[in-house]
Amino acid sequence: MIIMGDLAINFRARGILDVDRVWLSSGFRVQLIKMGIEKAGSVNELGRRMGYRSRVHPGWGVVQIMQGKQAFPVSRLKLLAEYLEYPLDDIMQYVTHPNRVTPESTRSALAMYGLSGYIPR
Q1: What is the SS3 assignment for the chain?
Q2: Distance (Å, rounded) from C-alpha 84 to C-alpha 29?
Q3: Which of 31, 70, 82, 94 is 20 to 30 A (C-alpha) from 43?
Q4: What is the per-residue pLDDT across 81-107, written as a single tens digit (0 to 9) for each?
């Protein structure tokens, strides 16, 4: 693995750069997902718009990302950017190092954007 700026990049066995997942700063990540939930009408519908296909709970992956439990798959981030008509280049300015995404920063962002119900216990 190499570090370029604040973005960790892994090399796969074939030597191809693996940049398929990114971490976004907590405040921006929560704000972006909240915008998506508001436009979609629900977290499950947002999950469907982002390509999640679970029949029971397509929003589960969205919640995991929003809570900072997993990185944002770039393919899903592209779908969200298109859905929100938000330039992907502008979003990518908020890419951060994984260790900067803390439970404290996520809790603070969720509370700030009125999503306290999603604060992990």
Answers
A1: CEEECCEEEEECCCCCEECCEEEECHHHHHHHHHHHHHHHCCHHHHHHHCCCCCCCCCCHHHHHHHCCCCCEEHHHHHHHHHHHCCCHHHHHCCEECHHHCCHHHHHHHHHHCCCHHHCCC
A2: 13
A3: 94
A4: 999 999 999 999 999 999 999 999 999
* Residue with tokens 């992907």, as numbered in its chain: 88
Two tokens, residue 57: 């709970």
Q: So what's the pLDDT on residue 54?
A: 87
From CA 118, how far away is CA 89, in angstroms rounded?
Answer: 27
Whole-angstrom Cα distance, residue 91 to residue 44?
22
Domain region containing 85: 2-8+19-116
* Number of domains composing the chain: 1
